[in-house]
């Protein structure tokens, strides 16, 4: 597997653009467009929140046939809880983009992220979509255009044998996917049917985005969508799944690392649980514990908080068998303190990433979850977020 510099434009036949159309008062980019030169097989996974954004509803309808050719995303306004007008605006966005690109309206995926409850400024959307085809390129700022409270772009591209996969994502707060706000758009030139694409995407999402949390809030607008235009021809499906897993996992890490106010990426690996479900529950219970997150922010090796979080997970395990490691330092041995040196552990915690390994010693199933520490910055950002 080879890492490439580009992202969604790395696979054959994809172009994109990112531009400012006036939604964000800051002047930051707020419209993203990704286009394949040919109709693509497509699949998507959506938020589990019962309140769903209008763009998500429109996109689900458009993808019923498993086909798409373009993705249009605005950032700054989420178009959620906007009733009939919100649905009409999302539909019009797809229609306008389709007209400019010379494709069918139903072949456009639409997404929005930002403030909930506000209507899209359709005059700005209409003017912003004019002549977009002439501004598409393979070297765009599309990754910047989907951001909200993020502090950095999240993008990746990999090449395996004859095919390439590229992706961009956004997410910093309101991140607790069960498939968070979390958006990820993936492109590939592999020839994969929409039915298989749906299966591969769900497999990858369950191992990556669904094992990530920043603040326990699941957004109304979460979406992971993938377009496969087939220009690279048939591929080894096992290698494709592995590459897609890698891309989704790396994007999950980038999102977790960029959690609102975060200073540390937390990776929790649970090993040797009785079932995979138990391993997942334990790992996610730890990364979603505010007490654990605060302790890690303070470089405090308070392992009792981890045990408490595990006990609240509803997973089956015996606490008197548990070993816990911070990086390679064993801090818990068979459920009790290993008499570690707190000063030394504090030093290794004073980094921008911390791996915690939990050995349950009761089975063979493993799981990994990703999160971040909780800082004063998280409260400041969310206390100031406009209403």
Topology:
Blueprint: E1 2-3, E2 14-19, E3 31-46, H1 54-62, E4 67-77, H2 83-101, E5 108-115, H3 122-129, H4 142-145, E6 154-160, E7 163-170, E8 183-191, H5 194-207, E9 223-234, H6 237-257, E10 265-273, H7 276-287, H8 290-297, H9 303-311, E11 323-326, E12 329-333, E13 336-337, H10 342-349, E14 353-359, E15 365-372, H11 376-384
Describe this structure in words.
With 387 residues, the protein is α+β, with helices and mostly antiparallel strands. The chain folds into 2 domains: 2-257, L-amino peptidase D-ALA esterase/amidase, CATH 3.60.70.12; 265-384, Ubiquitin-like (UB roll), CATH 3.10.20. It has 11 helices and 15 strands. It has helices at residues 54-62, 83-101, 122-129, 142-145, 194-207, 237-257, 276-287, 290-297, 303-311, 342-349, 376-384, and strands at 2-3, 14-19, 31-46, 67-77, 108-115, 154-160, 163-170, 183-191, 223-234, 265-273, 323-326, 329-333, 336-337, 353-359, 365-372. The strands form 2 sheets. Strands 1, 2, 3, 4, 5, 6, 7, 8 and 9 form a 9-stranded mixed beta sheet that branches. The chain has a 6-stranded mixed beta sheet with strand order 13-12-11-14-10-15. Helix 7 crosses helix 9. The model is unreliable at 174-180 (pLDDT under 50).
